[in-house]
Specification:
The complex is a heterodimer of chains A (259) and B (276).
Chain A: H1 7-33, H2 45-52, H3 56-87, H4 93-105, H5 108-118, H6 121-124, H7 129-151, H8 155-164, H9 169-180, H10 182-198, H11 201-205, H12 211-221, H13 223-247
Chain B: H1 5-26, H2 40-43, H3 47-80, H4 83-97, H5 102-112, H6 117-124, H7 139-163, H8 167-175, H9 180-209, H10 212-218, H11 225-233, H12 244-275
Helix pairs in contact in B: 1-12, 3-7, 3-9, 4-7, 5-10, 7-9, 8-9, 9-12, 11-12
The chains are: A mainly alpha (259), B mainly alpha (276).
Chain lengths: 259, 276
C-alpha cells in the first residue's frame, strides 16, 4: 500500500501559517513606517525625523560604545576561562556551567533590582556599569559558543606543541588557540554585541539612556518615528544575520540551548 | 583553580551578590529590622497576588501557543528545508526568537493598533477586530506579541530533538509492521516528549520574565509582575512598602527557578535517549 505523501500539504499549511504570523505584522509595520504626515501618502518623513531627533546620535553612540566594550570584556574574561576549563579544569566545569546558565534563570528585572542594591556608588554613577551586566546576560550564549568550538580542536596537542617550542601562555592563547577557535569567538562576540545593543530592561531600571530606552521616550513624541526605528533595526538584524549565514564559509556557529 | 579566579570574582560580584543583596533587603523592614512583612502583600488577595496570576496566565498561554506551533514548524523545517534555505530559516528564527524587545512592541502597534495596517485591511474585509474587547494594549494583545517570539524560540530549541529522530527507528518499526501513525504514537512521540517538556519550561521562564516588550507596549495597562516592579523602582514608592519591589523580585526568582528545575529534569530524561 502506498503511503499518502504529506509533503505538500504540510509545506503549504506551514507556509500559510508563517505568512500570517510573521510576514503580515512585519509587512504591516514596514508600510506603516512610510506613512506621510497626517497619515497621507508615502514618504521618508519618519526616517528623516528620526535622524534629526534630539538624542538619536548620542544614544546610538552610547549603545554602540557599550556594546563594543561588552564584547571585548566578554572575550577577555571568557576565552582564558574556557581554555583552562577544557584543558586542566575539567572538574570545575559543571560549576562554571551552572554559573553561566544562571542569567537565564534569574529574571533580568530581579538582577537589575539586585544591582541597584548591591553595586557600590562609584559604579552606579557611570554608564559603564552596564558593560558588566551586558557581559553577564551574554554568559549563557558565550559559554556555549566557545565550549562547542573548543571541543572541536585538539586543544591539548596544540598547547603542548606551542609550549614546548617555548611560547608563553599569553602567546599560546593569542597566536595558537584564538585562531583555532575563530568561529566560536566570532559567534560569542556577535551575540554579546547584539544582546547589548538591544538591552532594555537593566538599562531602563538603572536609569541610563541608550538607544532602546531613547526609542521608548521618543515614541511618546512621535510614534511613527518609533515605528520607523523598530522596523529599521529589525530588518537590519535579519539582513545582517542572513548575509552571515549565506556567505560565511562554515555555517554560523549555532548557539542553542538544547532541549 | 587560579586561572578561574577572574571568572569567579566577576560572576560573584555582578551576578551572585546582587541576587543575595536583593534577597536580604526583601527581608528587612523600614526600620532595618528583619521581617517577612514585604512578602505578605504577595501572598494575600490584592493587586500583587493578582499580578502574579496574570503573569503566570500570560506565560502559560503564550507557551502553549509557542510550543505547539513551534514544534510543528520545527518538524516541517527539519523535514523539508535543507541547505542554504535551511540556513536562512535558522538565522531568521534566531532574529525573531530574540526579538522580544522594544522594536517588537512598536511594530505590533503599527500592524494591529486602531489605525494599524492589518486592522484597516481586516476591517475592509468585514472583520473589525476592535469590535469586541480587543486592543493591542490588552492581555490578548500581549499574547499576540509574545507568540511572535515564543514560536521561533521553540523552533530553535526543539529542532535538534526532531533532527535526532533516526530514520532507522522508523524503518525498524515499519519492518515490524507498524503503520505511520503507530510509529508516531509508539516511537516518535514518546522519544520527543521529554524534549518537548523541557522546551515548554524554558519558554515559560522566558515569557514570565520578559519585560521590555510589555513595558513599551502597555505602559502598565496589563498588570504583570515585572512591570509592577519597574513602577516601584521608578519612584513613587509608598513609604511603608519600601522593600516590596525586592520581595516581588525574589518571588520572580522563585518561580523562574522552579521552571528551570523542570527544564533540567526534562533535559536529563531526554539525554537518556541520546546516549543509548
Amino acid at each position: 500500500m502506498k503511503r499518502l505523501s504529506l509533503k505538500w500539504p504540510l509545506i503549504v499549511i506551514s507556509s500559510a501559517l508563517a505568512f500570517i504570523i510573521f510576514v503580515v505584522p512585519l509587512y504591516g509595520a514596514s508600510v506603516y513606517s512610510f506613512k506621510g504626515m497626517g497619515g497621507k501618502g508615502h514618504s521618508w518623513v519618519n526616517y528623516q525625523w528620526l535622524i534629526h531627533a534630539d538624542g538619536f546620535y548620542p544614544s546610538l553612540f552610547t549603545s554602540l560604545k557599550l556594546a563594543v566594550l561588552a564584547g571585548i570584556l566578554n572575550l577577555l574574561l571568557m576565552v582564558p576561562t574556557m581554555v583552562y576549563l577544557n584543558l586542566k579544569g575539567q572538574r570545575f566545569k559543571p560549576f562554571v556551567d551552572f554559573l553561566c546558565i544562571l542569567p537565564l534563570i534569574i529574571p533580568v528585572v530581579s538582577l537589575a533590582i539586585g544591582a541597584q542594591v548591591a553595586m557600590p556608588e562609584f559604579l552606579q554613577n557611570t554608564e559603564y556599569e552596564l558593560v558588566f551586566f551586558f557581559v553577564i546576560i551574554a554568559l549563557p550564549y558565550t559559554y556555549r559558543a566557545l565550549d562547542t568550538s573548543l571541543q572541536t580542536v585538539a586543544l591539548k596537542t596544540l598547547v603542548e606543541a606551542s609550549r614546548s617550542l617555548g611560547a608563553s601562555w599569553t602567546r599560546t592563547i593569542i597566536r595558537v588557540i584564538v585562531p583555532a577557535i575563530r568561529s566560536g569567538i566570532t559567534g560569542a562576540l556577535f551575540l554579546t554585541f547584539a544582546l547589548s545593543i538591544g538591552e532594555y530592561t537593566i538599562t531602563s531600571l538603572l536609569h541610563w539612556e541608550t538607544f532602546p530606552t531613547w526609542t521608548v521616550v521618543a515614541a511618546q513624541q512621535n510614534i511613527l518615528g518609533a515605528i520607523a526605528i523598530s522596523v529599521f533595526s529589525f530588518v537590519g538584524a535579519i539582513v545582517l544575520l542572513t548575509a552571515i549565514a549565506l556567505f560565511s564559509k562554515k555555517r554560523v556557529q549555532r548557539v542553542e540551548v538544547e532541549a | 583553580m587560579l586561572p578561574l579566579l577572574p571568572f569567579f570574582i566577576f560572576t560573584g560580584f555582578f551576578l551572585v551578590w546582587p541576587v543575595i543583596a536583593v534577597t536580604l533587603r526583601s527581608l528587612h523592614g523600614n526600620k532595618n529590622e528583619w521581617t517577612f512583612a514585604n512578602y505578605r502583600p504577595m501572598l494575600h488577595k490584592g493587586p500583587y497576588l493578582h499580578a502574579f496570576v496574570v503573569s503566570l496566565k500570560l506565560s502559560i498561554v503564550t507557551t502553549v501557543i509557542g510550543s505547539i506551533l513551534g514544534a510543528f514548524f520545527a518538524y516541517v523545517i527539519v523535514k523539508y528545508a535543507h541547505g542554504k534555505f535551511g540556513a536562512v530559516i535558522d538565522s531568521i528564527s534566531a532574529v525573531f526568537a530574540n526579538s522580544g524587545g522594544v522594536p517588537l512592541a512598536f511594530m505590533f502597534v503599527a500592524a494591529f493598533g486602531t489605525e494599524g495596517l492589518v486592522t484597516t485591511v481586516l476591517k475592509r474585509l468585514g472583520w473589525d477586530i476592535y469590535a469586541g474587547h480587543f486592543t493591542i494594549f490588552s492581555f490578548t494583545g500581549v499574547v499576540l506579541v509574545y507568540s511572535f517570539f515564543q514560536i521561533p524560540l521553540m523552533v530553535l530549541i526543539f529542532k535538534p530533538a526532531i533532527a535526532g529522530l533516526r530514520s532507522e527507528w522508523e524503518e525498524a518499526s515499519t519492518n515490524l509492521g507498524a503503520s505511520h501513525l503507530t510509529y508516531w504514537r509508539r516511537v516518535a512521540i514518546p522519544i520527543l516528549t521529554p524534549s518537548f517538556i523541557g522546551a515548554f519550561f524554558l519558554l515559560f521562564a522566558g515569557g514570565f520574565s520578559a519585560y521590555a516588550t510589555a513595558r513599551a507596549l502597555t505602559v502598565g495597562t496589563v498588570p504583570l509582575v515585572p512591570i509592577i516592579i519597574g513602577t516601584l523602582v521608578d519612584g513613587n514608592v509608598i513609604s511603608d512598602q519600601a522593600n516590596l519591589g525586592d520581595a516581588l523580585a525574589v518571588g520572580m526568582i522563585v518561580v523562574a527557578t522552579i521552571a528551570m528545575a523542570g527544564y533540567i529534569w526534562a533535559q536529563r530524561q531526554a539525554a537518556k535517549w541520546r546516549s543509548s
